[in-house]
Amino acid sequence: MTATITYRRDIASTGVDGLDDILDGGLTRERIYLVEGTPGTGKTTLAMGFLLAGTRTGEAGLYITLAETKVELLAVAQSHGWSLDAVDLVEMVPVDGLGEDQEQTLLHPSELELGETVRDIMAKVDETKPSRVVIDSLSELRLLAQTPVRYRRQILALKHFFASRQCTVLMLDDKSANGSDLQLQSIAHGVVMLEQTLSGFGAQRRRAHVVKMRGVRFRGGYHDFEIERGGLCVYPRLIAAEHGSSFDDTPASTGSEHLDQLLGGGLVPGTATLLSGPSGVGKTTAAVQAMTAGLKRGDKASYFLFDERLPTLLKRSAALGMDLEPHIENGHLDIRGIDPAELSPGEFAGKVRHAVEQHGAKTIVIDSLNAYLQSMPNEQFLTLQMHELLSYLGQKGVVTILILGLHGLANDVRVDIDLSYLADTVVQLRYFEARGEVRQAISVIKTRTARHERTIREFQISEDGLSVGDVLRDFQGVLTGVPTFSGAGSTLMRRTGEPAVAAGAA
User: Which CATH number fits domain 243-422: 3.40.50.720, 3.30.450.90, 3.30.2350.10, 3.40.50.300?
Assistant: First the structure.
């Protein structure tokens, strides 16, 4: 009878929570890993964070630099507010050792043979006995090796040496070789690729990709990350299926009885409602009113503001009888101004997750999808990202309100991209003309959760917020996006101070 061998994976944290999440907890100990990336992608920052994470648990760390000086490394650490006192820094190009009289004894990678450099690395490891080691960078060893065969043999020698010393090793490579170093990738236990790209406008975008990780069920694909003070901030790619939970799906009121009737009872938790319409028609006001109704019930909410300035939103909402300041002060409402030129899709998804999981938000408002579109490389990515994000919010039982602005006010009303199929409920807000005035109409195009009204109602925005009137039957051209009213004036809502119109009057 064959005995079953149970393998227990001993994990070392990378020092980056998001990367640990991607790697199913972190790196397997006593293995050698390759971190590849062009200059500026964050390899050195990641390596330092890895060593400092070890020092916090009592593990000795060794940083061997073959290219940068000790002064440069200390400057990088200082920019992050770190102290490297607990880490052994070994500079293979000492500043005080460049004289001709010391030329034959220096650990200078461009002057010594590869074998001697490798032996010096081994000697330093035996001297300090570290648990975590960083070698920065392999491009210097590759130049010394001159031939791929010799280079591979020396890397293999280092791999076996570190395994015998129970070391977890990060080897940094700046990708100075032509193409990917597949030989080195095949030797390493795991490979993490760091990339940096520039868009036509705005900040650079950084993303990480785990090429391989033996024996680990890691999360594949690209993951956005940023270099911030304190290290890397990695945003794991969102997978909605991992976040299922149970919740009460009783419809929540929007704060308007007539609007609730239009929706078939209100906004259902776990669904996304899309408010679409031209500029100024009242989409934001409708979203704020529905959110405020939830806040008054004691729920928490998060508002992601792309288009409008926060002071403008607060002032306008207060003028309409929806003062948001008290909810912000008591911590129930979190409003975040978002700059799409500085935001990556992964970072935005990370902010939404934080709002739901840490802040406890039951209502999420995204105002608007048009600005979010501008932060994406192309429309296909927007659709995929938004689909996964809405699926995640649905799994969490969140009431999601999306605002989508249309171009044009009349005749030629259009949208950048059709996202209506992603929403569970689509509410259409339009202008219409009647009795020589521009008025506003609201209708529900679809809802997946209830039998909604298929009528068109007029609505007004006043100091009491958004109020919805009775059903208007005499419309033409609704499906064109520009409804025209041709009925009697008595069926229209009265303006403040306006006398009633007799039945049958024009």
Answer: 3.40.50.300
